[in-house]
Amino acid sequence: GAVVSQHPSRVICKSGTSVKIECRSLDFQATTMFWYRQFPKQSLMLMATSNEGSKATYEQGVEKDKFLINHASLTLSTLTVTSAHPEDSCFYICSAPRGRTLHFGNGTRLTVT
Amino acid sequence: GENVEQHPSTLSVQEGDSAVIKCTYSDSASNYFPWYKQELGKRPQLIIDIRSNVGEKKDQRIAVTLNKTAKHFSLHITETQPEDSAVYFCAAPTGFQKLVFGTGTRLLVSP
Q: Residue A96's beta-bridge partner residues?
């Protein structure tokens, strides 16, 4: 069964609004979680690393003020897309490592109209 | 950091044939290489992985080979079935517990 839960699975929002996505590790603690995004027919691109107890670290080219990450507990990380625009529409996927294996959430398909 | 290249981008085979997908990596210190399968609109799922202390690993119809000298690793699927149709991603570590993914291979298995 799933070891990482992600919600919502789909969201449609208007341009300029904010959207929050939750990622939970089930039955294990994750001091680190990763957020990826995937545009249609493209690979998974790492956006940022969510760290419990400290600030998230962002990959080059990812705006930290636009993509707010909060690692609220040892089992929960949230990604907030602020002031969303149509170009932010894509598939956002969180992941959490358990041992050497990276487990993914089901993903959130964001559509900004 | 690590750079991963994956080929081919698309692969069409007939049911029962074998499929091979290849990846190269740049960091000789990398020691863990997973393969993920992603069906349309779904999450990537780990199907097999290999660590650098072995050259080959097999799990039923799926196998992965690793050539550390040449810095490449390959996914082999034998006796392909239509349900094997998906996008396959290779990956390599780029920091503690972080992975960088290849560009993906869209595999189509025709009945």
A: A103
